Amino acid sequence: MRMVDLIEKKRDGKVLSQKEIDWVVENYTNGTIPEYQMSAMAMAIYFKGMTAQEMADLTMAMVNSGDSLDLSAIEGIKVDKHSTGGVGDKTTLVLTPLLAASGVKVAKMSGRGLGHTGGTVDKLESIAGFHTELEPDEFIRQVREIGIAVIGQSGNLTPADKKLYGLRDVTATVDSIPLIASSIMSKKIAAGSDLICLDVKVGSGAFMKTVEDGRLLAENLVAIGNAVNRKTIAFLTNMQEPLGLAVGNSLEVEEAVNTLKGEGPKDLTELCLTMGGHMLVAAGAAPNFETARAKLEQSLADGSAFEKLCEFIGAQGGDVAMIRDTSLLPHAPHIIPVKSERDGYIQEITALPIGHAAMLLGAGRSTKEDQLDYAVGIVLDKKVGTHVNAGDVLCYVHSQSTDIPNVIAEIHEAFVIEPQEAVVEPLIYEAIGV
Fold first, then answer.
1. Among 123, 187, 201, 382, the one annotated catalytic
2. Which keywords describe this protein according to UniProt (predicted)?
3. Which is deepest, 3, 211, 217, 328, by most CB within 10 Å?
4. Of 81, 82, 116, 188, which is the active-site residue?
């Protein structure tokens, strides 16, 4: 088998066999296939695409390139949830305790953020002592005993994906649906769960900018999961404006805690109850969505979801006192109001500049080596559709300094205020596979 022949085959729009895909992934991972040939293959895939079977084969080849977690020692259906990323997306911090409190085992592998705000691991590490470096047997024991564990990505999990992603980043092939879908699903499948829920963000603060592109990605993700016998469901959700109010690591932890106490923002609460309800049904923990949602609402009302969060944080070394009293979390010394410059209705709070402003404060990374400031961030005071007068507070900036003109400029760019009433986009555009 020769790489040049397979490049030519894909360049001409033909279908690669499982044996051919396995050969490419194995030999690229071990260094036999040079970068320039894999670059050509990635570009051929970018232009010619892949069939559903090719994507499934590529996904499993990347899974088999490294370690996988075997969760068979945990009884029942194990669930995992993945978001394609957005601004203020603290869904995991709310949804996983909700599910665990409702009797579903959550075995989640999460990553760190690059750009915008931190990832789930970064948010959790704003809690003193919390750690995500669990050995596989510790991870399994914790899921069995308390129903939830979150770990960072293993050093040898899908090494083929890590290597290929780095190549795509420098060859303008990152935004290839087959390569995105197989990358996401390889990590989720290697993590070992039976049920995978995918939150595909759509809008200015997301990788997928349109509902059409988001739908295409979601359909491919679900097809891959089902092709390899993993029950997979996906939701297209709105990331045109930040999710919830808080953007920044400890600020988002605080908002998640408030949500689990029944005092969270409407959009974050609704998203978690909706996705969680469908996950309970798919996991066989409820006969229908209405029953499932009522079960989740009860766990908010009786405090069991909040207590599950405390149990989870404590099990992984975190200071539970910071969860019971969020004033103990890292807080910035300066809270600066940003005020509206005109009267009108908020038409947009464009998520991308809000995320960039948070990154300038130190809440996100511009390079992998950057150190996060857990205390800083932005807390919105208004959402899309609200009427404001000139001088009304739009948001509060939590900062280490009062000299932040670039941050203030980014925030003013994000808020679009016009005289006419705003059209409020739906929170969830579509559900796929439910």
1. 187
2. Glycosyltransferase, Metal-binding, Transferase
3. 217
4. 82
Mean pLDDT of 137-148: 94
187 catalytic? Reply is yes
Query: Which is nearest to 70 in space by CA: 164, 175, 143, 152?
Result: 143
430 pLDDT above the threshold of 90: yes
Q: Could you give the CA distance from residue 410 to residue 414 in angstroms, rounded to a whole number? A: 6
Q: How many residues does the structure list for the chain?
A: 434
| Selected residue with higher pLDDT from 127 and 367 | 127
What pTM does this model have? 0.91
Q: Is the pLDDT of residue 211 over 80?
A: yes
State yes or no: is 126 an active-site residue: no
- How far apart are the C-alpha atoms of 90 and 277, rounded to whole Å? 18
Dihedrals phi, psi of 208, to nearest 5 degrees = -90, 120
161 is catalytic: yes
Is residue 373 within 8 A of residue 122, CB to CB? The reply is: no
Catalytic residue among 122, 161, 199, 373: 161
Residue 245 or 170, more confident:
245
Are 231 and 111 a contacting pair, CB within 8 Å? no
> Up-side HSE of residue 46: CA atoms within 13 Å toward CB?
14
Q: What is the mean pLDDT of residues 338-355?
A: 96
pLDDT of residue 368: 63
